[in-house]
Structure formats: C-alpha cells, structure tokens
Amino acid sequence: MAFNAFPVETQATALMNSIDNFPNQKSEFEKLEEAYANGDINSVFEYSLHPFEKNELFIEEFYFKRNEEWLPKLEKMFSESKSFVTVGVTHLKGERGLLNLLRANGYTVTPIPVND
Question: Over pLDDT 70: what percentage of the chain?
Fold first, then answer.
C-alpha cells in the first residue's frame, strides 16, 4: 500500500503542515477547483502535491505505481461489463497517468465537461 512507503513521522509532519497552513491550503484548493473546471490537469496535479510538495517518492507511490497497479484491474472490469470509472484527478496526468496508460493500451478516453 502507498502509505506503507512513508514512516508515520513523515505522515504526521505532512498532516501538521496542512493544519498549520490551513488558510494557504484553502487558497490552493480554490485554485485547484478553478484549474479543474478549466480542464487544466497539469495545474491540478501541481496543486494536489501539498503537503508533500514535490517529493518524488510520494509521486511515485501515490500516483504512478497505483495507476500501473489499477490498469490490469480496470481492463478486467472493462472486459466483463460496461464500465464507468472515476478516480482522483491527479491520477490522470502525464505519461504514467491513467489517461495515457489507457490510450497506450488501445482505449478511447473521452473527457466529460464540467459545468456549474
């Protein structure tokens, strides 16, 4: 599991960082919402990295490895029945994001517009 890659102390530090910086976290969340509504996946990904910032181990464990582990499970599900899949938006970005992984395996991925 992704959390097992991080000592409890690191998790506690990240949590306390979020609590101590709540006003900034709230502002960042508002920017994340705007970026999501505009379809700006790259900005959404960048805003989502708090409180671990640009920790490569965090990105590898929480996003990329999980995406790669999900792919065969998703493909099995797709082969068994019609499917609708939702994931956290940060799992969509980049070469190792789910969108690209699915496209690389021959799937057609169609975004659904977000409207207020």
Answer: 90
